């Protein structure tokens, strides 16, 4: 009878090595899963989007409040303009037009960021103190009178000052003056920002 003796120590590496490798892979997989889970944590993204949404809502509310202020000022100015236009159609002299639409210094300051004096011709892009004096010499002293002045007359005023005023282009000065007369300060500022030195 032959007795077979199994040496357990020789068979240990056969089942221990896969066990150790499996255990290491399990731990490694668990750690990778935790690390990947932290990167894709939806709560972090949700907080970020909530903050962005709150910021956009605040900007929207600020724009709406500014728009309502501008709309109410524009509506008031246009209502006044429509009322006064019926009266001004009967008048033979158009120079008092500026007095028919009330000047709103606060609205002008809000649009331009500086104090504006009523009927100051230098608010017109391209008109400085010297050109303002030339217009005053021709009894054009208000925005309304400048708005009613033709481009040809504006050029005559410039020509009266000599050659140094020939570089100026008055073709849009009556338009700008009309916007000032009507109290359309934001439209005037936007127009001036879009047209360099009143040219175009």
TrEMBL record:
It comes from the Bacteria. The chain crosses the membrane at residues 15-33. Keywords: Membrane, Transmembrane, Transmembrane helix. This is Flap endonuclease-1-like 5' DNA nuclease. It comes from Dokdonia ponticola. The lineage of its organism: Bacteria, Pseudomonadati, Bacteroidota, Flavobacteriia, Flavobacteriales.
